[in-house]
């Protein structure tokens, strides 16, 4: 039995405020992700670019402008992460600095994925293979060390961009939360995950083969 992806968890200084931003920006579209967004209190500062971010899609240039304006009105801001002047996507950050992109119209890769087109991740080809096996989601892209998986039920893709990688200097602010039976812990380890500690409050902390933290809520 494969684990189930239940949530993408944000570490937040103000969980309620960050939840208001994302629910205001995504609205009902948040249900189309196939998993929840969860916000938990953390006092740790944000010191680097996140390992994961959302790619939001646009149906037209006007639609892209509306999404950007809505995000800015909710407390987001423009940021520079080294994008080139001729790139047509818009890079923004939420009120706590978590990066996300509003993709230009006509992006074929995300064409059928809905408003939340992708959870775009910094990571290796091997970690893409790991998550495909862990979640039992098929690979929908595997080329030039870039990988992507997608739930058989649809929704956004989860992508890994291959090298070069942003150095990991501390715990990630965004992490996956899975549900699964206790036996699933051993299966994930056999696939290349590492267990980071004992089960506490029904939850086991783990890391994928790239060292990215994730949690498993043990069922039963």
From TrEMBL:
Organism domain of life: Bacteria
Gene3D superfamilies assigned: 2,3-Dihydroxybiphenyl 1,2-Dioxygenase, domain 1
Stored InterPro entries: Glyas_Bleomycin-R_OHBP_Dase, Glyoxalase_6
Record Pfam families: Glyoxalase_6 (PF18029)
Residues annotated as domain Glyoxalase-like: 10-103, 122-217
PANTHER family tied to this protein: CONSERVED PROTEIN, HYPOTHETICAL FUSION PROTEIN
Stated name of the protein: Bleomycin resistance protein
Species whose genome carries this gene: Amycolatopsis thailandensis
